[in-house]
């Protein structure tokens, strides 16, 4: 007898004699709805759970003091001055969110062709890392490595004749990773998609004695339309020339994602990431099943904006859509999610006890 998912396929033939006793009842041995009949029953058979441990909270930084600047395309998300970022780190601690991620809005006067501010040991990111670590040494801090918040052209790397240079960029990224790690950052997260950057950064960290600094590689990062609001947030939307398709992945591909992830693991990544999130859950599943590595997904700004905007219009229940979208990452096999919903979701999870 053929068996599928633990049950004989010919079940209907073998299971029943004369049918059910209740009038009008269908002759069904198996009724999947029984396991959904009450909340306690649903809890008993629930396969995946979201907890605050699954959340990484990205924060946007801006120069100044006691400043919070709303981002129009990301309702509910602000750019924060260093002191305010410290307060949000405290909020994350209290909500038991294990890790925050930092993204700077660099003053336009500090942006140049080379993204020089990226390697300034006193840039906004490094200042914030030091300020947070001083007050809250026990929260994890992730810093992005890429040049786009710092370049006048909005690209993640150095440009020559319209071409993004790989190897020259990697050398700068190593220096960027080092200033961040020296400031006290716990996880270096290269998001630039240059080839060979994970190996180069690992070597740079090890040579500087920063052996415990982890690397979370944005291993499969796609050239996506869903990054729009993020580019508003860091101020690169207006300046970006062209697109990022010569370094970020083509959304049509998944085998290529496996090759990218495999390379980053071989080069020393401790954790890998797929980005964006919701439109790429198939990639998350394949990566997790293939490599069994700590696997993260980034629910990016456009995904946040879609849900937030629809909720603000009364078109869907924002809280339920948020929780459903986050649980979907767990179902796809992710160990955690970078999400702008992190504090709101954590508050909800904690109120549910
Ligand atoms: N390197 C970080 C990002 O590009 C974030 C994109 C987004 O949230 O849209
Ligand atoms: Mg790669």
Ligand inventory: 5-azanyl-4-oxidanylidene-pentanoic acid, magnesium ion
What is the helix tally? 12
Q: Strands of the biggest beta sheet: in what spatial order?
A: 3-6-7-10-11-12-13-14
* Total count of strands: 14
What does the main sheet amount to? 8 strands, parallel, barrel
Question: Kindly, what is the distance between the CA atoms of the first and last residues, rounded to a whole number of angstroms?
Answer: 45 Å
Name the structural class.
alpha/beta
How would the blueprint of this fold be written?
Layout: E1 3-4, E2 7-8, H1 11-15, H2 39-45, E3 55-61, E4 68-70, E5 78-80, H3 82-94, E6 99-104, H4 124-135, E7 140-145, E8 159-160, E9 163-164, H5 166-183, E10 187-190, H6 197-207, E11 214-221, H7 228-234, H8 255-266, E12 271-275, H9 281-291, E13 295-299, H10 301-312, H11 318-331, E14 336-339, H12 342-351
Parallel strand pairs: 3-5, 3-6, 3-14, 6-7, 7-10, 10-11, 11-12, 12-13, 13-14
Antiparallel strand pairs: 1-2, 4-5, 8-9
Helix pairs in contact: 3-4, 5-6, 8-9, 10-11
The chain binds 5-azanyl-4-oxidanylidene-pentanoic acid (FVT) and magnesium ion (MG).
Q: What does this 3D model show about the protein?
A:
The protein has helices spanning 11-15, 39-45, 82-94, 124-135, 166-183, 197-207, 228-234, 255-266, 281-291, 301-312, 318-331, 342-351; strands at 3-4, 7-8, 55-61, 68-70, 78-80, 99-104, 140-145, 159-160, 163-164, 187-190, 214-221, 271-275, 295-299, 336-339. The protein has 353 residues and is an alpha/beta fold. Strand 8 (159-160) and strand 9 form a beta hairpin. It starts with a strand and ends with a helix. The mean pLDDT is 95.
